[in-house]
Amino acid sequence: MAWKKTDDAPSYSRRAQNSLIDFTRIYVAIFVILTIAYLVETILPKPDKAILTHYHLSHASYYWLIDPLAIILVLIWLVSLYGSLRVKAYARVIDGSKDGKGMNLIGNGLLTQTISLPIISNLSYILNHAAKNHPGLQPTATIIINYISLGLMAAAFILVFAGGQKLFKLVPSRTRQLPRIVWQGVFILASSLYTYLVIIQPIHHPLDRRAYFLPDWLLVLTIAAPYIFFWYLGVNGAYNMYLFSRNIKGSIYKDALSFLASGVALVVLASVITRIITSLSSRITSLKITPILLIVYGLLAVIAAGYILIAIGAKKLRKIEEA
Amino acid sequence: MANLSLLDQVLEISQDYLGPAAERFIDRQISTHLKKRPEKITREDVYKLIDWIKLSFALLTNDKAIVEQYAKRLRLVADGKWNEAVGKKWAQK
User: Fold this and answer.
1) What is the pLDDT of residues A62-96, one digit of tens each?
2) Which helix (H) or strand (E) covers residue A40, if one does?
3) Is A320 in Cβ contact with B60 (below 8 Å)?
4) Measured between CB atoms, does A28 come within 8 Å of chain B?
5) Residues A125-157 pLDDT 10s
6) Chain B: residue nearest A317 by CA?
7) What ipTM was reported for this prediction?
8) Which member of B16, B23, B60 has the closest CB to residue A319?
9) What are phi and psi of A48, to 5 degrees?
10) Could you tell me if A1 and B23 are in contact, meaning their C-beta atoms sit under 8 angstroms apart?
11) Would you give the DSSP letter of residue A5?
12) Angle between helices A289-322 and A251-279 (to 10 degrees)
């Protein structure tokens, strides 16, 4: 109970708030710089002639396709920034309470996932640009991008998992195991499909190796298996949040938390879809422009929905603490 | 339930609506509006608290029935009529 804290609790709280403001400022500044850099890198350069020829595009139609896409992507990043900061701010408000630690870890996980979006986009641009001028660098560039993407995703999902676990431990009664068994079964099937796409396909379609530039054994050990493992952690984190929201008291609180849990689940799902698309990249780029745009916009819709739900959930939770 | 303090009874009811946030919510209402330590509240305070809670709680939901239900249950505490049997009856609703 707040009153049982020591007398200097308010000053501690103020210090915590100040450090949060400092952290938020630095985080947002880095995010904005990376986002502006991404927009400049995407919108300003002249299009690659090979791309124009491949998709039968003029310069003008290229910009009509790319510019809205880049702007929509940045808008989604901003929604994710807003949602993640809201969760973090809420976690700081309830710092010291039973659910505070779990929420703080989830907030850190979402912030990691959010900053990874512009980091990976910028890194991809820089390394691929270097590889364009020095084609021998392409495999190295691809491998670096893949491992950094994996590392950032791993950090984010480990934090979400740890947060979900902490919240789940607060659930007073035993929960039914059947839904967990069902989703784990579905997860195993999806993982098998992913491994199939990563490994089996390149044997028949050597172009797919361009997505990884790694021998199969290294691809399985250091890309496919870790991705599956960290997705499992992410899905488990979201599921534990869902269980927490289902099994605790508090109709108003449950409603807000279910938004947050659904949002986290969608963000994890978007990560899975993104990876599957990457594995199929050579086949997807051979499609016509309309199906490619449908796939990209579909993926963006899933990511946007996830972060919008997170933002709504965090806003509702924060409102409870301000009432 | 008979052993529960007045504050615990208020918290128990509040948790049905606000879950883990209930304790923080009630602490805030009492310290801000009644200028008291939560554990020092009296029945008279609970009557005043109901008015403040109704105002604050209405900001969180548009469902007037829930707001009224919450207030009605708290009124039972203020009237000294909240006991184990009444709590169980409400829990079944």
Assistant:
1) 888 888 889 999 999 999 999 999 999 999 889 88
2) helix A9-43
3) yes
4) no
5) 999 889 988 888 989 999 999 999 999 999 999
6) B21
7) 0.83
8) B60
9) -70, 130
10) yes
11) S
12) 160
